Fold:
Amino acid sequence: MAAKHYDSKTFTTAASIGYLLKLAHTLMVECASDAFADRDISFMQWIVLMKLREGAAMTASDLCREMRQDTGALTRLLDQLEERGYIVRERSKEDRRVVQLQLTPAGRKQATELVPLAVERLNTAAGDFSKTEFNEFVRLLNKLIGKLREAQQAGEARAS
Structure:
């Protein structure tokens, strides 16, 4: 039987791992956004460039799923990146309905040059963790993500 970590009689939102993860995420984005404030692109635009560089996404739909963003906000980000010459949109030769995203050489350069800035902020945020604690934290987050994906897939299977 699965362990029960919460009790409905004593539960508070402040103790919810969902709330704590959201708060940590929000604070990390704010910290990174501050670091990118005097750059040519925003932190979120840089994330798009990185996802394209890493091959984690090829289309706007892929990016929406990968980044958990709504299509309207992402479209604006892509428009701005295209205007700056960092990405190009190209129709797929196999399926004309699909628009693929490509990094330009300038986009690849911009993404690469800003990695040290992001890494420095991440290292600052995790600075109080020992190497062992950090590795365990990452392992536990991935375990949680795996369990949540399993539950999501099970819910989708029941719905269909």
Notes: The chain has a mean pLDDT of 92. The helical segments are 17-35, 43-54, 60-67, 71-83, 105-125, 131-159. The beta strands are 87-91, 99-103.
